[in-house]
Design brief:
- The complex is a heterodimer.
- By secondary structure, chain A is an alpha+beta fold.
- Chain A contains 14 helices and eleven strands.
- Chain A has two domains: 3-54 and 321-463, no CATH class; 60-314, no CATH class.
- Chain A has helices at 3-16, 18-56, 75-80, 92-100, 161-167, 181-185, 257-262, 268-274, 297-306, 315-357, 359-367, 372-415, 428-455, 458-463, and strands at 61-65, 104-109, 112-119, 122-131, 145-146, 156-160, 192-202, 223-238, 253-256, 286-291, 310-312.
- Chain A has a six-stranded mixed beta barrel with strand order 3-4-9-6-8-7. A four-stranded antiparallel beta sheet of chain A has the order 2-10-1-11, covered by helices on one side.
- In chain A, helix 2 packs antiparallel against helix 13, helix 10 packs parallel to helix 13 and helix 12 (372-415) runs antiparallel to helix 13 (428-455).
- The longest helix of chain A is centred in the last third of the chain and has 44 residues, at 372-415.
- Chain A starts with a helix and ends with a helix.
- Chain B is globular and about 45 Å long.
- The relative contact order of chain B is 0.19.
- Chain B has one domain (5-230): P-loop containing nucleotide triphosphate hydrolases (Rossmann fold).
- Chain B has helices spanning 49-57, 79-89, 105-115, 120-133, 149-161, 179-195, 207-213, and strands at residues 5-18, 21-34, 38-42, 64-69, 72-73, 90-93, 167-171, 199-204, 216-221, 224-230.
- Chain B starts with a strand and ends in a 6-residue tail after the last strand.
- Chain B contains seven helices and ten strands.
- Chain B is an alpha/beta fold.
- The mean pLDDT of chain B is 92.
- Classes of the chains: A alpha+beta, B alpha/beta.
- Chain A binds chain B through residues 1-2, 4-5, 9, 12-13, 16, 360-361, 363-374, 458-459, 462, and chain B through 54, 57, 59-60, 79-80, 83-84, 86-88, 92, 94, 98-100, 102, 111-112, 114-117, 120, 159-160, 163.
Chain lengths: 465, 236
């Protein structure tokens, strides 16, 4: 029989026992829907986590230090690479070279220094760090009070919640409720703090060195250290730490990177450089390299190591996160498939019932010339048709369930002051895959009934009333 | 000039097992039927005439002996080839008509054309023509349940002949009909036998019908061939 004849007859047979076949099809669609819903949740959560990790800047960052520092994160690198004295200097030229590497988004110097700052006439000691403009999208600032820096060198500061507490008289006592960020930020936003820091100035031109000067050419081998002050406005207070990767060295006050750089604060490397032959140019103790995606980190790391620097990243952590989601997806898929497995038993049942009911019809068809394959094809097509319909219906149903989950989650998130998130996502491959899977399962379920129908003895079947 | 042999049976046996006992439904039957002959298989109920017809139709296989139709040994055919034999070489009508109740007459008659992979465009015309030939041109869209027994049997005749087989096998075609419609059907069958030079093998237990229409009468009892006579008295 030709394909369209088989299909036409299959659909007409399905229409004949409409209720039973509809119920079977609904069974399949529920199975497909649960599979789609489960896997979409897995995909959605994975993407959500991926977005969060990406925004955190933890997994797409390579931290570069000079071997000259003798404090590399990996001792192997020091032993295997060129000796520290022969290794290159981590300066502006090196930074530019890194920025030229493929898959590198940006490379910025890590400026951080300990400073004493004054607020309301009271002194506070803390670490200050420069923050590049690209950090704007870091999700540590998602729930921030106030605003991000208005420009890359604005005299503004963003402070951590813990520091905001300190500025207002210390952390709450044990057992007392912790004040919210909004509450802490209210009296601080727009207020000024005065930073006192040690500026590195070339000895003979120290009088001319201004805060805004970026001209490093005047630098000489000798420095004078000048005490300076800078007044900045508190622009934002954030609950989450954008610098969590640094642990104890993490800063609690952030300045725009360009502003921090222009201060020429004395760095530990400066002291050493005074005595070395590279003394002419200022160097960075650390450069942070942002990579376009976490998967490119090892490649970039290797390229930077080739340049002769020490590197550090936490890509291994992303690997385990990805592994976790692969396992999660697998389990969600298995749970989703269970419903489809139950539905497939429904198909077998429906078709076996149909064979019993249509036994005589099968006998007639064989008597007038239907081959085993014609009969098999017909039952197979009926199973397939239920699979197609069930798959389409199931994807639609699964999609609707997902939208409801999204809606419900976001209502909940909003109620708890979180930004809305898409926790549930149906990618196209899943739509196509679910329908194909449904057809495949249905055809597999049809295998036994179809071959049973084909094997039916026509003489026996014709006798059946 | 004698006609070529259409059906040749040589020492054909068909045994069925019913628990411990073996039932010999067909027991050593040998028979030659020339092309174009109208043969009636006569016998009482359980004499093996329907079993013999099923063997010729290729619906069943002989336990031993040789069943050859148009010089083709059916035992040598695969299941697929046997289906083709039922589709093209023989056409069958049954006592209980065996139309598919969920299909209308046109669809029923078209069904063998679907199995024969005849093009869709040609099929409807062929089926309509076949139904017209049996006088059902006006009822093509009716379902079998909406027709009388005689009309159903005529439709089943149209279906049996749609693929232009050379042999018509009829299993008690008038068994469920009153004598008037029975006569109509028999007249139609003989008409096909004569106008298309079709070989007809008809199973019946009504001797009167056999004597009236068949050219040859073969008698079976307990699966054995017990008589074979030319019927000179068949009405023309």
């Amino acid at each position: 029989m030709k394909f369209y004849d088989v299909t036409e007859l299959a659909f007409r047979n399905l229409r004949e026992s409409l209720l039973r076949n509809s119920l079977t099809t609904v069974g399949i669609s529920v199975g497909v829907a649960s599979l789609v819903a489960m896997l979409s949740l897995g995909v959605g959560l994975q993407q959500l986590a991926g977005r969060k990790l990406e925004k955190s800047g933890l997994f797409d960052t390579v931290i570069v230090t000079s071997r000259r520092d003798l404090r590399g994160y990996e001792h192997d690198q020091e032993r295997n690479g060129p000796s520290p004295a022969e290794s290159p200097v981590l300066d502006e030229a090196a930074r530019l070279k890194m920025e030229q590497l493929p898959a590198v988004k940006e490379a910025y110097p890590d400026i951080r220094f300990v400073t004493e700052l004054r607020f309301d006439g009271m002194p506070h000691l803390t670490m200050v760090a420069g923050l590049p403009d690209s950090a704007r999208t870091n999700d540590a600032f998602d729930g921030m009070q106030g605003t991000f820096f208005t420009s890359h060198d604005a005299p503004q500061a963003i402070i951590l919640k813990s520091f905001a507490e300190e500025l207002q008289g210390g952390t709450p006592k044990h057992g007392e409720p912790e004040p919210g960020v909004a509450e802490l930020a209210k009296p601080l936003l727009g207020k000024t703090i005065i930073l006192r820091y040690a500026q590195r100035a070339a000895a003979q031109t120290s009088a001319n060195t201004s805060l805004a000067s970026d001209d490093m050419s005047a630098m000489e081998a000798a420095y004078s250290v000048v005490s300076k002050e800078l007044t900045v406005t508190i622009a934002g207070v954030t609950d989450l730490n954008p610098d969590s990767m640094r642990g104890q060295a993490g800063a609690r006050v952030y300045l725009p990177l360009d502003l921090a750089e222009s201060l020429h604060v004395v760095q530990t490397s400066d002291l050493r450089n005074v005595a070395s032959d590279t003394a002419g140019t200022p160097t960075y103790s650390t450069v942070s390299v942002r990579v376009t995606s976490a998967s490119k980190v090892p490649q970039v790391e290797a390229a930077i190591k080739k340049l002769g620097f020490n590197t550090f990243s936490i890509t291994d952590a992303t690997k385990s996160v990805r592994q976790f989601f692969a396992v999660l997806d697998l389990f969600l898929g298995i749970f989703g498939s269970l419903a489809l497995a139950v539905a497939s038993i429904g198909i077998v049942n429906t078709l076996v019932m149909a064979i019993l009911e249509r036994r005589r019809e099968i006998g007639i068809m064989k008597a007038i010339g239907a081959s085993d394959n014609d009969v098999k094809g017909l039952f197979f097509a009926e199973a397939g048709a239920m699979g197609v319909l069930g798959g389409l219906l199931g994807v639609a149903l699964g999609w609707t369930i997902g939208q409801l989950i999204n809606l419900g989650t976001n209502v909940y998130m909003r109620r708890h002051d979180f930004p809305p998130e898409k926790v549930w996502l149906v990618p196209w491959w899943l739509v196509g895959g679910a329908i194909l899977f449904s057809i495949l399962v249905s055809l597999l379920s049809g295998l036994y009934p179809a071959s049973r129908a084909a094997r039916l003895d026509p003489v026996q079947a014709l006798r059946y009333e | 000039m004698s006609s070529p042999t259409a059906i040749s049976l040589k020492d054909v046996c068909r045994n069925y097992k019913m628990g411990e006992t073996v039932i010999r439904a067909v027991d050593g039957v040998s028979l030659e039927i020339p092309a174009g002959q109208f043969v009636a298989l006569l016998g009482s109920s359980g004499s093996g005439k329907s079993s013999l017809l099923n063997l010729i139709a290729g619906l069943d296989r002989a336990t031993s002996g040789k069943v050859a139709v148009e010089n083709q040994d059916l035992a040598a055919l695969s299941r697929e080839a046997l289906a083709k034999h039922r589709l093209k070489t023989v056409g069958m009508v049954f006592q209980s008509f065996n139309l598919i109740p969920s299909m209308n007459l046109l669809e029923n008659v078209e069904l063998p054309l679907r199995f024969a992979e005849v093009e869709r465009a040609k099929r409807e015309g062929m089926a309509r023509q076949a139904l017209q030939r049996v006088g059902l041109g006006a009822r093509v869209k009716h379902r079998p349940s909406e027709l009388s027994g005689g009309e159903q049997q005529r439709a089943s005749l149209a279906r049996a002949l749609i693929n232009q087989p050379r042999i018509l096998l009829a299993d008690e075609p008038t068994g469920n009909l009153d004598s008037r419609t029975g006569t109509e059907i028999m007249t139609l069958i003989r008409e096909f036998n004569e106008s298309l030079d079709m070989t007809v093998v008809m199973v019946t237990h009504e001797r009167a019908i056999a004597e009236h229409y068949a050219q040859r009468m073969v008698f079976l009892a307990d699966g054995k061939l017990v008589g074979d006579q030319v019927n000179t008295g068949a009405a023309k």
